[in-house]
Design goal:
Rossmann fold; binds 6-O-phosphono-beta-D-fructofuranose
Length: about 375
């Protein structure tokens, strides 16, 4: 008698980022290698609610996914599965929604589910897992603020995008003797800002971990002028704030939604111009950091993560998340990753490297 076919499901949740499709491809291919079938769940966890939305994933059709941006499955961070109010403050998902998702999972004949997401989606995964759904997690977020993995996929691609933007701003800032402010994403952690800031030759880096003052920023502008450097590049994480100040938000948060951050760059540019008398301009990189294809590093990481997720399922190691602990991929309990913000250590080597090079955090 033929053994029953093993069918696994995969969904992508929360904000998109480069590399989601590469993970889908790796999971589908590694599953096919074991003779398993993979079913895609559309639109994040909402795809498991009535009307259930799925997509057959044929392993022979996966080739273009390695390099493409976005997610062919779609994603969502709204609705009954809206996950977060703030980092580490996971929304308790209504029991009915969890039960309905579990019922769909069983009805679809799935043996396991791969959940690809950040802190919010993985905290939903944890709740589903506690209700008896066998699943494994794959850590994604351009912000790189998820604990228990040295790096999340999507981050390297976002840093590459921000560094490219800085390279471009550098030449125009120098041509016009201007202050240029680049606002990048990074809600609670400044990993993108500090990494791109160092890689792209920024002069001031503003991150959520180190409150800044305008005196500190302007002192750096003045010090550069003294050296004959008549332009200054400032990289600001959207979640950075003035000492004693607050986030700059476009839209307030709600019960089931975090505040939509954005606008800090313009505020900084205006204030620095007022205080220094120099021309200042702002560039908001926004969702360009989340769009487009993954870097080589992310393609490789996504492929390793996807294959590792399938190995975890084969070993029936459920409730776990794949993680990178160089030089290898490992797995950790999902609860070790969620609800724990991984911020830039203020006395770590990245901050020290920046300071050693004379880069200011606007704090002195
Ligand atoms: O969490 C990743 C992130 O890129 C944050 O840095 C940013 O604040 C947020 O997503 C933006 O999300 P949305 O696209 O829902 O506005």
């Amino acid at each position: 008698m033929k053994p029953p076919l093993t069918r696994i499901g995969i969904l992508t949740g929360g904000g998109d980022c480069p590399g989601l499709n590469a993970v889908i491809r790796a999971v589908v291919k590694a599953a096919a290698k074991r003779g398993w079938e993979t079913l895609g769940i559309r639109g994040g966890f909402n795809g498991l609610l009535d009307p259930v939305r799925t997509m057959a994933l044929d392993y022979t059709q996966m080739d273009a996914l390695l390099t493409s941006g976005g997610t062919i499955l779609g994603t969502s961070n709204r609705g009954p599965f809206a996950a977060k109010r703030a980092h580490g403050v996971a929304q308790e998902i209504p029991r009915e929604a969890l039960d309905a998702a579990k019922a769909s999972f069983e009805k679809l004949g799935l043996a396991a589910l791969v959940v690809v997401g950040g802190d919010g989606s993985l905290s939903i995964a944890l709740q589903l897992s506690r209700r008896g759904v066998p699943l494994v997690g794959v850590p994604k977020t351009i912000d790189n603020d998820l604990d228990a993995t040295v790096i999340t996929f999507g981050f390297d691609s976002a840093v590459a995008c921000a560094t490219d933007a800085l390279d471009r701003l550098h030449t125009t800032a120098a041509s016009h003797d201007r202050v240029m402010v680049l606002e990048v994403m990074g809600r609670y952690a400044g990993w993108i800002a500090i990494s791109a800031g160092i890689a792209g030759g920024g002069d001031v880096i503003l991150i959520p971990e180190i409150p800044f003052s305008y005196e500190g920023i302007c002192a750096q502008v003045a010090a550069r002028e003294k050296l004959g450097k008549r332009f200054t590049l400032i990289v600001a994480a959207e979640g950075a704030r003035e000492a004693g100040g607050h986030f700059v938000a476009r839209e307030e948060g709600a019960k089931d939604r975090e505040a939509q951050l954005g606008g800090l760059g313009a505020v900084v540019a205006k204030e620095v111009a007022r205080r220094t008398g120099k021309e200042a301009r702002v560039c908001v990189l926004g969702h360009l950091q989340r769009g487009g294809g993954p870097t080589c590093f992310d393609r490789l990481l996504c492929t390793r993560f996807g294959a590792q997720a399938v190995r975890l399922i084969a070993e029936k190691k459920f409730g776990r998340m794949v993680a990178l602990k160089p030089p290898t991929t490992v797995s950790v309990p999902i609860e070790e990753a969620v609800g724990r913000l991984k911020q830039v250590p203020v006395d770590g080597d990245l901050v020290m490297t920046a300071r050693d090079l004379g880069i200011s955090f606007g704090d002195a």
